[in-house]
Structures are given as C-alpha cells and as structure tokens.
Amino acid sequence: MAGGAKELDELAAAYPAVSIRPVVADLATDAGVDVVKASLRGLELNEVVCAPGVEQTDLLDSIFKADLAAFGAQSPNLATRYRN
Asked: In terms of pLDDT, which residue wins out, 28 or 49?
C-alpha cells in the first residue's frame, strides 16, 4: 500500500495507524489482542495503514490513490473558490 510510505521511509521509523471498526475493541479482550497482533503484522508487511477487518486490500489502495489525486496536487495558494 502506498499512502505515505515514502515520507515514512525518509524518517526511518515506523508509525502504525490501526483502523478499528466503529465499535472500538477493548484491548483487554481477545478481539483487542487480535487488533494488536494485526498491527504488529502490518508493520512486518510494511503497511502504512492497518485495517484488521478489511480483507480486500485493493479497496484501501483505491482510497490511497484517490487521496493522492485530490491532495497531491495542492497549491500553496488558496483555491479560486475561496478568494474574494
């Protein structure tokens, strides 16, 4: 998964981002332990975002590509619609 991998590589550090479904798992339960295990495995796989419940990673890749398309071409100037 692409996302911000280049930026993280330049920092030479790993910062996991774990996406838990809207109902947050209590980390003291088996479900919580599974989330922690998934997060650590995601780091081993060099994933930028860990989404333990998402089986189809191509869906996440689509989101990352759309995000880059929308925000990768930003300008330091205000967009025309926000100017007086």
From this structure: 49
